[in-house]
C-alpha cells in the first residue's frame, strides 16, 4: 500500500513539474522585438527589391553559406508569384521556443494574401538562423 501511495505522489509531482515548465515564458533572442521587427522588414523589403546582400545582412554565417544567390532568386520568384510583394507586418511577433531556438512569427500582408513569416534565432543570439514562409498559396504550390 505504501508503494502505491509513493508512486501516486511521485507521478503527481512529475505532472505538476511538467505543467509548470510548460507555463514558463519563452526565452527570447538577445535583441529586442523592435530589432527583430527591423530585421524582418529588411529581409522582406530586400526580397521586393531583388537585393541579395541586404537579404542576407542579418543572417548567421551558417545561413549565409547555405542560402545561395540562386536560392534567393528562386525564393523571390516563388514568393512573388504566389503572394505578391511584401506590404507590411504586424508590430509584435508570436514568440515560442523549439529546443535551443527562439522562434518569432509575424503575420505579414503581401499584395495577394497574408503570409506567416518565421524568423529563428539561437536563444540569446542576434543573427537569423532560420527563415520560413507559410501561406495558403505557398502550401498549394508545394503540393
List strands and helices in order, with pairings.
Layout: H1 2-22, H2 33-48, H3 52-55, H4 61-66, H5 69-83, E1 86-89, E2 94-98, E3 101-110, E4 114-122, E5 128-134, H6 136-142
Antiparallel strand pairs: 1-3, 2-3, 3-4, 4-5
Structure, described:
48% of the residues lie in helices and 24% in strands. With 143 residues, it is of the alpha+beta class. The chain has a single domain (27-142), classed as Nuclear Transport Factor 2, Chain: A. Strands 1, 2, 3, 4 and 5 form a five-stranded antiparallel sheet that branches. The chain is globular and about 40 Å long. Residues 1-22 have low confidence and may be disordered.
Please give the count of helices.
6
Radius of gyration: 20 Å
Report the sheet-strand fraction. Answer: 15-25%
- H and E order: HHHHHEEEEEH
Total number of domains:
1
The best one-word shape is globular
What is the terminal separation in angstroms? 57 Å
Q: Would you give the CATH topology? A: Nuclear Transport Factor 2, Chain: A
What structural class do helix, strand and pairing data support?
alpha+beta
Report helical residue fraction: 40-55%
Largest sheet: 5 strands, antiparallel
* Overall pLDDT level: 85
What low-confidence regions span 5 or more consecutive residues with pLDDT below 50? 1-22
Return the CATH class.
Answer: Alpha Beta
